[in-house]
């Protein structure tokens, strides 16, 4: 390869997360990485680097290089906050009781409907920056706090605008089937009509969503209602994701696996049969330890059974005002280990290659391999175990998005 390349990163230890390379991190020590046109064109031991003429060289000074982190499940765009509700739950009220008493998601819906698009943008950008400062280069943002046509569109447009004005990749999911809006009290099937006949077609026309999500739960929608949303999404050629078995077993995961969903998220209450169905369909398990922690849940998802069945396991923040007001993906790695028994390497896989798979993006990112995006983070650490082990002080030394330096000043 005598030709030039845009960038050469040398003198680094690469945690490629490539499952074809031996070891939990797919590590290549004393490596070099060549980048052209925003993509990795060569990666391997530095001593094997063929002649090349880079326009720019980064000396990694022996630091570790990982894929850019991916947060595959957030509700980052919303108005208001729910601090008062947090105090009520500490006082003994359950999440369901608060929701049934008109609080919960519906209180954030009121605040989000009342906020202008500009206000929503201003409220959401600091949450985005918090994740980016941790090395997040791709994230997913859901709607779901509008529950009417105009506000669902307002939320999704805000997410697209955040992507236009920040050096980060953002994909979106329409989660209009998040909760029943007060104006449809007792008329859930009619609200599902609105989603299938008006909201999803309008979202698709404006290409505002890359997937469709739904809350299939005792305080959300039934399997039959969610199946209708899945059918409508398929008609629009949009992939689906499901908030499933978070608070009880409902049959949501079985429905999602049968539909070939990209992912099922939460899944604390899934059965052994659900695990096999996910293994069969290739549906990714997205674990959300922050919501488990915040809701002081005690039933953990069956991680060992998922691993034994070969189900792909991702980790995410579920950043939202109610069940996880925590803008830290690194803390989720730590919680994934401490609360769900993952190893540090499995936690990093959960926020890189598995998270990419949960978004249908594994052909473009999540692993350091030739042909994939040069989304990479340089870390001043001795071992990648430190990413799940310590929270707060260990910050990225450099963040590259498509080979471009986007490290915040
Ligand atoms: N499950 C959750 O934990 C979040 N949404 C969902 O479907 C909670 C959202 C909120 O409480 O605002
Ligand atoms: Fe969620």
Automatic annotation (TrEMBL):
Tell me any Pfam family this protein matches: Amidohydro_1
What this protein needs as a cofactor is: Zn(2+); Fe(3+)
Q: Which SUPFAM superfamilies match?
A: Composite domain of metallo-dependent hydrolases, Metallo-dependent hydrolases
Q: What is its EC number?
A: 3.5.2.7
Q: Which residues bind 4-imidazolone-5-propanoate?
A: 82, 145, 178, 246, 323
Q: Name one GO molecular function term.
A: imidazolonepropionase activity
Q: Which residues form the Amidohydrolase-related domain?
A: 65-381
Can you state which reaction this protein catalyses?
4-imidazolone-5-propanoate + H2O = N-formimidoyl-L-glutamate
Please tell me where Zn(2+) binds in this chain.
73, 75, 243, 318
Q: Any idea where this protein resides? A: Cytoplasm
- Alphabetical list of NCBIfam families matching this protein: hutI
Please give the function described in this protein's UniProt entry: Catalyzes the hydrolytic cleavage of the carbon-nitrogen bond in imidazolone-5-propanoate to yield N-formimidoyl-L-glutamate. It is the third step in the universal histidine degradation pathway.
HAMAP family per UniProt: HutI
Q: What is this protein called?
A: Imidazolonepropionase
């Amino acid at each position: 390869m005598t030709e030039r390349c845009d960038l050469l990163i040398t003198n680094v230890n690469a945690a490629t997360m490539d499952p074809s390379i031996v070891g939990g991190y797919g590590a290549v020590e004393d490596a070099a990485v060549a980048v052209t046109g925003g993509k990795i064109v060569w990666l391997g031991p530095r001593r094997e680097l063929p002649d090349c003429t880079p326009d720019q060289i980064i000396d990694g000074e022996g630091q570790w290089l990982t894929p850019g982190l991916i947060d595959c499940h957030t509700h980052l765009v919303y108005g208001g906050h729910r601090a008062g509700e947090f105090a009520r739950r500490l006082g003994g009220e359950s999440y369901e009781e608060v929701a049934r008493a008109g609080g919960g998601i519906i209180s954030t819906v009121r605040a989000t409907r009342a906020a202008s698009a500009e206000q929503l943008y201003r409220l959401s950008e600091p949450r985005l920056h918090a994740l980016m400062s941790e090395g997040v280069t791709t994230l997913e943002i859901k709607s779901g706090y509008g529950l009417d046509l105009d506000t669902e569109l307002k939320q999704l447009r805000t997410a697209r605008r955040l992507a236009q004005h920040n050096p980060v990749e953002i994909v979106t999911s329409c989660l209009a089937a998040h909760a029943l809006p007060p104006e449809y009290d007792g008329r859930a099937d009619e609200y599902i009509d609105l989603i299938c006949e008006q909201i999803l077609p309008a979202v698709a026309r404006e290409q505002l969503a890359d997937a469709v999500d739904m809350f299939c739960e005792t305080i959300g929608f039934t399997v039959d209602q969610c199946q209708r949303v899945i059918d409508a999404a398929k008609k629009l050629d949009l992939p689906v994701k499901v908030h499933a078995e978070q608070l009880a077993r409902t049959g949501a995961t079985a429905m999602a696996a049968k539909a070939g969903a990209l992912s099922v998220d939460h899944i604390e209450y899934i059965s052994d049969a659900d695990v096999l169905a996910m293994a069969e369909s290739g549906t990714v398990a997205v674990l959300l330890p922050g919501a488990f922690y915040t809701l002081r849940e005690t039933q953990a998802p069956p991680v060992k059974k998922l691993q034994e069945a070969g189900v792909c396991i991702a980790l995410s923040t579920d950043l939202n005002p109610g069940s996880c007001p925590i803008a830290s993906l690194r803390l989720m790695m730590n919680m994934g280990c401490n609360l769900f028994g993952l190893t540090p390497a499995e936690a990093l896989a959960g926020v890189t290659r598995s998270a990419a798979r949960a978004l249908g993006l594994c052909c473009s990112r999540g692993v350091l391999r030739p042909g994939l995006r040069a989304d990479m983070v340089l870390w001043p650490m001795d071992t990648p175990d430190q990413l799940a082990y310590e929270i707060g002080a260990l910050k990225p030394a450099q963040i590259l998005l498509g080979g471009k330096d986007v490290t915040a000043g």
